[in-house]
Write a structure and sequence with these properties.
Blueprint lengths: L26 E6 L8 H16 L9 E9 L2 E9 L5 E8 L6 E2 L8 E2 L5 H14 L1
Parallel strand pairs: 1-4, 5-6
Antiparallel strand pairs: 2-3, 3-4
């Protein structure tokens, strides 16, 4: 976890099941940029796998995926969110970088372990991300 993940150039080739079984799975990743436990590039690797899976399905090609970076502040911490969208506007993936956060659950309750109350609330954002897909 502390080193960058080593992945093949096209991770979908490693999947033994037909790629169609994996298509359409949305991905949301949170990572604190002060995390010394998990390397900062590992979240990007998860996003890359998601985008590769969609590209294999023919639903999108890398050239058709638009990436928009948004910045903000929530709960006392700044964040950058990269939203990856298909040409149709559907969100394929979100990658959140929580600035100043270490290895902790962003927006978590202090009564829990490995929580940071000052970040954007990862639980709320995950609910928004996944429930919003069910409503569409």
């Amino acid at each position: 976890m502390a080193a960058p993940a080593v992945m093949p150039a096209r991770c979908w080739r490693c999947v033994p099941a037909p790629a169609s079984e994996h298509a359409g799975v949305p991905v949301i990743v949170f990572h604190g940029d002060a995390d010394t436990t998990v390397h900062r590039t590992n979240g990007g690797g998860v996003i890359r796998q998601c985008l590769d899976s969609h590209a294999v399905q023919g639903s999108v090609a890398d050239a058709g995926v638009a990436v928009v970076a948004e910045t903000g502040r929530s709960g006392g911490r700044a964040f950058t969110r990269h939203v990856h969208r298909e040409p149709t506007g559907s969100v394929l993936a979100e990658q959140w970088t929580v600035h100043g956060a270490g290895h902790a659950w962003s927006g978590g309750d202090l009564r829990g372990s490995y929580t940071d109350t000052r970040g954007p609330n990862a639980s709320e954002e995950m609910l928004r991300f996944f429930i919003g897909r069910m409503d569409g």
